[in-house]
Amino acid sequence: MISTSTSKCPHCGERNPTAKPFNQMGTAEKVAYTGFMGAGSIFFIICAIIIFIILLMLI
Asked: Could you list the residue ranges that cross the membrane (predicted)?
């Protein structure tokens, strides 16, 4: 069984036929769907900018 709140099975990767496509989800659903990956991407970008600024100051 696959939960109706997920897009695929976490164990085997089977796609959930009842899941909404990403482009039809509301904002709250998109935030819940992207979850940690969205926050991780923002953290990575901020770290990259900080490292870039530090490198510029060393030159």
From this structure: 31-58
